[in-house]
Amino acid sequence: MDNNQKEVLVSIRNLDVVFGRGKKSFKAIDNVSFDIYKGETLSLVGESGSGKTTIGRAIMRINPCSAGEIYYDGKKISGKLSRKDDREVIRKIQMIFQDPAASLNERATIEYIISEGLYNFHLYKDEKDRIAKIEKVIKDVGLLPEHLTRYPHEFSGGQRQRVGIARSIVMEPEFIVADEPISALDVSIRAQVLNLLKKFQNERGLTYLFIAHDLSIVRFISDRIVVIYKGRVMEIAETEELFAYPLHPYTKSLISAIPIPDPIIEKNKKLFVYSRDLHDYSVEKPELVDIGNGHLVFGSPSEIEKYKKVRFG
Ligand code: ATP
């Protein structure tokens, strides 16, 4: 439980991820901390290259942490784990990828793709049980049992993403990292895939980390939002709080970039461009501060005072 009396499922503490060594090294993630509550959808937003995927991959233990820790259900999962804990974490935390064409093995049947995790973790009693599980999940994602004998190239992008979701869901995970799961799909089928993810969340109490750069979609699906800029957290708040009171200038620039459906208003809209030069951190050093109402902003002490005034008067 944290101060807000919510149950924390994933906790990221002072995470650094550094790529490369020596002079060529690059700190993609710099002292990032945030919690993900059980049952919520938390979205990471920020421009391309800000480090969203790197954070997701650090939680998945694909990218090693250079500093800091990641906890899952109170247990440290960054660094070395026992074989038993390792297997448990692999099963409980699943990932859905952006490009379902690239993430599915083209040579394998849908049946094999969905069964692979079950095979690896022996999550079925016998053949009958395995088949029952995959037939149920294929129907749950809106496909048909006869699709099981086919290959990924026989499906549309949306159907392939349904297979990607089935492959995760069949493992009965608790937590899913969804990395831009709809960006590669036709606009017309994006809502269907989002609704499918929501359905599983409602039915199974799943927790999602959703990675996206499209703020209008993020608004529709998230309980809370973490804004990332160049590997650092700029702002964290509940979704409607963030849209009503965007405090950090980078958040404001992201929100101002959301297209407005009215073409005349959109054409005359003033885009707010963010630059680090807006801040003077030569004397006062910035940090991420909780200003109340679950709203955290990155700023120097005088900036934080200003943000508090804007928010609470
Ligand atoms: P996008 O929205 O384009 O996916 P992102 O916010 O997810 O962007 P990341 O993919 O996490 O950003 O990348 C963050 C930074 O880390 C980028 O500058 C990227 O070039 C760099 N980076 C990511 N993976 C590696 C790697 N394996 N080796 C070196 N640099 C990397």
> What is the number of domains?
1
The overall pLDDT average reads 93
Distinct small molecules: adenosine-5'-triphosphate
Bin the helical content: 25-40%
Please identify, by name, the CATH architecture: 3-Layer(aba) Sandwich
Q: Write down the overall geometry.
A: globular
Structure description:
The protein has 313 residues and is of the alpha/beta class. The protein has a single domain (8-245), classed as Rossmann fold, CATH 3.40.50.300. Helix content is 38%, strand content 24%. The protein has helices at 52-59, 83-92, 100-103, 110-121, 127-140, 157-169, 187-204, 215-221, 239-244, 249-256, 263-268, 301-312, and strands at 8-19, 26-37, 41-45, 67-72, 75-76, 93-96, 175-179, 207-211, 224-229, 232-238, 287-292, 295-299. The strands form 2 sheets. It has an 8-stranded mixed sheet with strand order 6-7-8-3-9-10-12-11, sandwiched between helices. The protein has a 4-stranded antiparallel sheet with strand order 2-1-4-5, covered by helices on one side. Helix 6 packs parallel to helix 7. The radius of gyration is 21 Å and the shape is globular. The site of adenosine-5'-triphosphate has 12 residues, from strand 2 and helix 1.
